[in-house]
Amino acid sequence: RYLTSHSTTGYTANVPLENALAPNSLVTWQYDGRPLPREHGGPVRDIIDPETLYFWKSAKFLSGFELTAEDQPGFWERLGYNNRGDIWSEERFWADSDFHTRRDVIRSQE
Q1: What are phi and psi of 21, to 5 degrees?
Q2: What is the DSSP letter of 40?
C-alpha cells in the first residue's frame, strides 16, 4: 500500500504507507506558531519520514493525498530519481538509469 502526495503545482511524491505513518512524518501548516511561509511549502506541506527518506519524498503546497494498492512513481522518480529514496543507502537514482547527479536529470530535460 502506498501514499501519493499531490501538490497544487502538479508535483507528486510517492511513499510506502509505512513511511507515511512513521512517527516522525507530519502534515504542517505552521512553524513556531506562525503560518508556514510559501518558501517553505506553505500554506500546507507534508514531511515524510525525514530520518529515512530524502526530502523529495515530501510535497510542498499540498493539495491532497491518494492511497493506492500499487506504487506509482512520483515527479522525480519519473525523471530517474530512485523510487525508494533511502538516505542511509544513498538511493538517489535508479540503478539502470544514466543519471548520476541531479545535473544529469536537468540536462535530460533540455
Answers
A1: -95, 5
A2: G
**Whole-prediction pTM value?**
0.78
**Rounded CA separation 106/6 (Å):** 22
Q: Which residues contact 84 (CB under 8 A, 6 or more apart)?
A: 53, 91
Question: Would you say 92 and 45 are in contact if contact means Cβ atoms under 8 Å apart?
Answer: no
- 3-state SS, residue 43: coil
Of the listed ranges 7-11, 63-67, 88-92, the one predicted with least confidence: 88-92
What CA–CA distance (Å, rounded) separates 27 from 47? 6
Residue type, 76: W
DSSP 56: G
Going by the DSSP 8-state scheme, the letter that residue 53 receives in this structure is B
At 102, the pLDDT band (50, 70, 90 cuts) reads low
Please compute the mean of the pLDDT values over residues 15-26 and round it to a whole number. 95
